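Design request, tokens follow.
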């Protein structure tokens, strides 16, 4: 397995992951294309490859890093590759890049009914700091999670 920066050549794989893993909340192909082209300077796209460089893309993550705050906007792994460490590797890379970018904390939102994701993030040091009612298209609530990236945060 490997994690690397994503680029325009990853458009098909990332767009497919969005549709497969995020359903009604998936980003459009056009939005993904803009991000992968590097047109949003604060946004980082990463992909996880199944068995190392050149193997199929099985996951992706998107983070925005602005000053002292980073936000994990997306993380998704195809169902066939779940429980293989890909999400952990993607999150670890987001954390590393966020620290390098000067961020002191990492924020994200998770559907309140996604027990697996909530447990995944709790095990990695995230704590609930807020809730956003009717955040998702279907009206579900988002749980806002935070993890400090520097001592004292």
């Amino acid at each position: 397995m490997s994690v690397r920066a994503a680029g325009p050549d990853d458009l098909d794989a990332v767009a497919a992951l969005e549709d497969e893993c995020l359903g009604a909340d998936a980003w459009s192909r056009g939005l993904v294309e803009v991000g992968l082209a590097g047109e949003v300077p604060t946004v980082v796209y990463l992909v996880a490859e199944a068995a190392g460089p050149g193997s199929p893309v099985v996951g992706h993550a998107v983070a925005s890093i602005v000053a002292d705050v980073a936000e994990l906007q997306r993380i998704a792994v195809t169902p066939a590759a779940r429980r293989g460490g890909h999400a952990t590797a993607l999150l670890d890379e987001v954390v590393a890049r966020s620290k390098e970018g000067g961020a002191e904390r990492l924020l994200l939102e998770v559907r309140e009914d996604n027990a697996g994701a909530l447990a995944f993030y709790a095990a990695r040091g995230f704590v609930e700091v807020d809730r956003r009612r009717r955040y998702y298209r279907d009206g579900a609530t988002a749980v806002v999670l935070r993890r400090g990236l520097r001592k004292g945060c």
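Comment from the thread starter after seeing the answer: thanks! Residues 77 and 87 are 7 Å apart (CA to CA).
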